[in-house]
Amino acid sequence: MFKRILVLAASASLALTMTACGSDKDSGGSGSGSSKIVLGFSQVGAESGWRTANTKSIQASAGTAGIELKFSDAQQKQENQIAAIRSFIKQKVDVIGFSPVVVTGWDAVLKEAKAAKIPVVLTDRAVDSDPSLYVTFIGSDFVEEGKKAGQWLVDEYKDAKEPVNIIQLEGTVGSAPAIDRKKGFEEVIGSNPNLKVVASQSGDFTRAKGKEVMQALLKANKDVDVLFAHNDDMGLGAMQAIEEAGLTPGKDIKIVTIDAVKDGMTALSEGKFNYIVECSPLLGDQLMATVKKVKAGETVEKRIVTVETVFDQAKAKEALPTRQY
Ligand code: GYE
């Protein structure tokens, strides 16, 4: 019961935030009197360093592009995202952008946006809806990221004569990055029968959950060689659990993660992580350029893939001083 009241209160405050900033659509014109493009953006939440950097990028790029941004944080809940998108439709924004927390369950609301003739641009994460329901999807290739992480293990343990026991910390259940990173990773390590995933569980992309789940998994699995975490934050939480268990991260248990945010890169440069596959959160400029094109009636590519790299400990040391996020 108490939980239910909290949920109601949360959605009421969400609705309030959105009406509070929802009335200024025509007041944001530039000096020339022309009206600004209005973009309604529903963000997943603030679960990780990656997400915070992504939010900053979107806000900064909207400012530079002269686009009015109506921003809504869904606290990692699909129902909040659906409510936000419905509110954007009601407010008649020009374009809707969102990063879908999970892959499934978007058909109805995407059809509503289409019926209202409001184009939708997906950023960061994919959906399983019919592609005719959105204009484009801007983001990383998560299967490829999982493969790059797996390839590091294949190379690192190419001469291993004994089983290499791996713990995998998965991202949010049902999210595109969790599904695809797991798929790419397991496909590549499958080439070496010594590489064994002994436990695989979700840590919901957060540091706190990463630590909690790793504590439990370390108790249940005595001989762990490698941790593969689907993002830096879970890896950082797990790193604490490893240290508290009296083990040395980076040595007793090697750590491979995805993202390459500053805290992850710091751990890598200090030898506590062993490898990071980059996933860039800086999608703001591409999003704003796409929004402008869509508004001008120009055609855009159905899939816009982000360019990314990988980091070992030496490369992390080099890159850290100029890292933006
Ligand atoms: O890797 C993780 C975040 O969807 C790519 O979400 C994003 C992932 C990112 O919480 O840190």
Automatic annotation (TrEMBL):
InterPro entries in alphabetical order: Peripla_BP_I, SBP_2_dom
Keywords from the named record: Signal
Record's keyword annotation contains Signal: yes
Principal localisation: other
Domain of life: Bacteria
Pfam families: Peripla_BP_4
Entry's localization field: Cell envelope
Residues spanning the signal sequence: 1-22
Classification via PROSITE patterns: PROKAR_LIPOPROTEIN
Domain Periplasmic binding protein stretches: 40-298
Regions annotated as coiled coil: none
Entry similarity comment: Belongs to the bacterial solute-binding protein 2 family.
Name this protein carries in UniProt: ABC transporter substrate-binding protein
Organism: Actinocorallia longicatena
